[in-house]
Amino acid sequence: MSVKINGNRPDCDVVVVGSGPNGLAAALTMQQAGLSVLLLEGAPGVGGGMRTEELTLPGFLHDVCSAVHPLAAISPFFNSLPLEAHGARFIYPDLPAAHPLEDGTAACLHVSLDQTAQAMAADGAVYRKLMAPLLKDWPLIADDLLGPFRIPAHPLKTFRFARQALQSAEALTDRFSTAGGRALWAGMAAHSMQPLSARLTAAIGLVLMAAGHRRGWPVVEGGSGRLAAAMASLFVSLGGKIETGIYVRSLAQLPSSHAVMLDVTPRQLLAIAGHRFSTFYKWQLERYRYGMGVFKVDWALDGPVPFTAEACRKAGTVHLGNTWEEIAASERDVSLGKHPDRPFVLMAQQSLFDPTRAPAGKHTAWAYCHVPHASTRDMTEAVEAQVERFAPGFRERILARHVMDTARMEAYNPNYIGGDINGGALRLSQLFTRPALRSAPYRTSAKGIYICSAATPPGGGVHGLCGYHAARRAWKDIFKSSLSSGKPKKR
């Protein structure tokens, strides 16, 4: 079976549209299996959310979107690739994350579970009880958690995780008695881009903490763009072909192939291939919901961020939001379409650990806050006020800044609909219907056409698993083989 599309390029086995981490993963997986793959990208270079540019001043390298990679560190797909041989090296800060409080102290996520528990004092036993079983079970349940829904290989262990993960972060908060413990948990769960009263927010906090204890929260030496470049280099070394500057708006632009894999969200999928879909499938895609947006600021700095809490000066990631109550209120306001005066801010300090990011003696910092979907309000003052609150003198060190509201985020990457960097809201109603209710979520209603973006399981983040699982699904459908076999026989 071939997708009947006319084009001037030579026919190939697979066409992949979009070169974010999932598009690259899909292309690599198919190419490694012995297929001929053409990867098309609308931007001048590959990467999607993994790009690094001089956004402020010459010599200051800023990650345009993704910056810190806890999910890449635990991704079985990334761990199977020879990335260092192609120029990508992960740097692991000794302290993955810190969360300052107004009293000058900070709660910290250490790589060591014991060290984290000890630092949490009165909450240490509670934290150990929460995380130790997950860390023990992780090697057995990771494949079930990081892929499409299936009958678990270890149902009792998976159920033990799900029993907590399907709750709201708010439901688990009362387990913590200290301000630091509650704040640290809130900051982790707030990565979900949902109000903390929403179900599944606990899952995000648990997985990010587990990733920190399993491996850490790394950055890429020289910028996240090097991770994309390494994946592209490996792909080309295997015989894959990449063409950039080709923005695909219609299937008519593509050559004939046995499969088309689209690293796009449902809105673009409908625009590109909707005429090929069933009425019911189109109806499902039209009901797909996107989540909060982000407002992002990058700074070129005259020195490191002068955090009051010493631990924050040693952390790769810093969560700025003070207490549980403040963070919960901020995320609730955003979900209601409001702009909080004190937004929850996620901040990264790559140059503390990677001197290639800035000229000698200088530094970079990267941060964003959540805003209502498609908001264009300038949140620069609110974001910088939050940093200054915990790092007095920060503003005096700013040499230059670069800001991106939700409109600029979407212009940079069309997958960021309304500034939603997760490819769709992580709601319980979309957990098993991402992007539509189907036995195989990567398969569309049109034969040979697949979706491989963060709008499919396991969702947002730099892990490549949406693309990997989509490629496996396409292989089995079209070539009636498994990825472990040799050159496939087309049907």
Molecular structure report:
The chain is an alpha/beta fold and about 500 residues long. It folds into 2 domains: about 130 residues, FAD/NAD(P)-binding domain; about 270 residues, Polyamine Oxidase, Chain A, domain 2. Helices cover about 35% and strands about 15% of the residues. It contains 15 helices and 16 strands. The strands form 4 sheets. It has a 7-stranded mixed β-sheet, sandwiched between helices. A 5-stranded parallel β-sheet has the order 9-2-1-10-16, with helices on both faces. The protein has a two-stranded antiparallel sheet with strand order 3-4. A hairpin with an 8-residue loop joins strand 3 and strand 4. Helix 7 packs across helix 8 and helix 7 runs parallel beside helix 12. The radius of gyration is 22 Å and the shape is globular.
Biggest sheet strand line-up: 7-6-12-13-14-11-15
- Biggest sheet, open or closed, and with what strands and sense? 7 strands, mixed
Average the pLDDT over all residues and give the rounded result: 94
Counting helices, strands and paired strands, the structural category is: alpha/beta
Low-confidence stretches: 1-9
Q: Using the 3D structure, state the CATH architecture of the largest domain.
A: Alpha-Beta Complex
Specify the helix fraction band: 25-40%
Number of E strands:
16
Tally of individual domains: 2
Strand content: 5-15%
Shape: globular
> Could you please say which CATH topology of the largest domain applies here?
Polyamine Oxidase, Chain A, domain 2
In whole angstroms, the N-to-C terminal distance is 6 Å
By DSSP (H or I, 4+ residues per run), the number of helices equals 15
Determine Rg (CA atoms, Å).
22 Å
Indicate the CATH class of the largest domain.
Alpha Beta
